[in-house]
Amino acid sequence: MKRVERLSMIGVLALATTQCFSQQISGPWTGQLDLGARKLTVVLHFDKDASGKDFCTMDSPDQSAKGIPATLNFISADSVNIAVPSIGMTYAGKLNEGELKGTFAQMGLSLPLSLKPGEVTHNRPQHPVEPYPYRTEEVSFTNVNAHATFSGTLVYPEGYKEGDKVPVLIMVTGSGAENRDEEVFDHKPFLVIADYLARHGVASLRFDDRGVGKSTGSMQGATTKDFAEDALAGIEMLRGLKRFSKVGVLGHSEGGSVAFMLGAKQKVDFIISMAGVGAKGDTALTAQANRTYELMGVPKQVNVAQYRAQVAQLNSPWINYFLDYDPIPDIQGTRCPVLAINGDKDVQVVSSLNLKGIEKALPKNKKTLMKEYPGLNHLFQHCSTGLPTEYAGIEETISEEVLGDIATWINGL
């Protein structure tokens, strides 16, 4: 449910940025805003476009926001002044002993912000590096109703030969427009999962969301139900290839709701729900808000009515649908085997509410497995608090135990 996290967390830094450059102020400049309970990294990129015009973009890596455009008010050899009128943000800084020292201001809040040359780099040891020991294939499929064609990567297991019948799954991302790797905070969880499965006998398909990467179509006005139609088009493509034994779906977060929508219609042979929602949307999101308040030390709790009132002003078709969507009937209608997992430190899809809800609603199936992992967050990383502010700073992309359990469960079907 990254879309909701971004809506609620981007607050101070849902930023956009500037146009700038000079002899001494060029390239990336990085610093941290000290917000007391948390720190947010800010990166300004100063450059020139092909015509020689000065410009600047801004990254907020801790919020997985990159390349945000800004407006340049002033640039000289030792000073910059930028603004983002849409969110009422400004930054003015002056070079002093090799650092840009200045003030970040937004919505009445003014904070010192010093920037040094260089940008943020992360170590992601689980990301596989080419050449891979298995075959990959670029594929496409179309959801005619959405006028959208999806581009994806089909990965065959290591040692696969034509005529082999192996299980395959399609991966469905969480909320928000995401690429086929479900890339967030420089992590690529779907790439890591696909690589692990390929090395353990399971094929997979991951694809760019509507209007992302090489996929066409638009996210505007789309809801979870529409995303289920997108995934179904991919499933039908996989079945049409006639190369696979069982065809399943792995859904993360909102993708878990998509998985159960497909399960209720008997469109898949198995389901993996990673931090899937097991309560009505407004209830699940209210629990998310309250858990976040609690962990951030904010002495505030909201009820469902209050939460709905807070987000009503967004007037978003996606959020309106999600608030009213109750996944329980779809979960109850799912007859295929299900692996439903969650971390007990997940702040975005609270396990004690949602995993329990799925377990209670699912029909009995001897191959179904429910598991809660101690110490894991929404991305299934080992963590301290589970707050999204930790995601970028954790090197682990996804727990090896989770990867192992997914592969073992599929191969045991």
Description:
This protein is an alpha/beta fold and about 425 residues long. The protein has 2 domains: about 15-115, Quinohemoprotein amine dehydrogenase alpha subunit, domain 2 (Lipocalin), CATH 2.40.128.120; about 135-410, Rossmann fold (3-Layer(aba) Sandwich), CATH 3.40.50. Helices cover about 25% and strands about 30% of the residues. The strands form 2 sheets. It has a 9-stranded antiparallel sheet with strand order 4-3-2-1-9-8-7-6-5, with no helix packed on it. It has an 8-stranded mixed sheet with strand order 10-11-13-12-14-15-16-17, sandwiched between helices. A hairpin with a 5-residue loop joins strand 2 (about 40-50) and strand 3.
Tags for this model:
alpha/beta; 10 helices; 26% helix; Rossmann fold; Lipocalin
Give a short overview.
This protein is an alpha/beta fold and 413 residues long. The chain contains ten helices and 17 strands. The radius of gyration is 22 Å and the shape is globular.
Look at the structure and give the CATH class of the largest domain: Alpha Beta
**Could you describe the largest sheet, including whether it forms a barrel?**
9 strands, antiparallel
The secondary structure category is alpha/beta
The number of helices is: 10
Instruction: Determine the CATH topology of the largest domain.
Output: Rossmann fold
Low-confidence parts: 3-23
**How are the strands of the biggest sheet laid out side by side?**
4-3-2-1-9-8-7-6-5
Task: Classify the helix fraction into a percent range.
Answer: 25-40%
- Rg of Cα set: 22 Å
Number of strands: 17
How many domains make up the 3D coordinates?
A: 2
Overall mean pLDDT = 91
H/E element order: HEEEEEEEEEEEEHEHEHEHHHHEHEH
**Second-tier CATH architecture of the largest domain:** 3-Layer(aba) Sandwich
C-alpha geometry: globular
- The CATH homologous superfamily of the largest domain is named Alpha/Beta hydrolase fold, catalytic domain
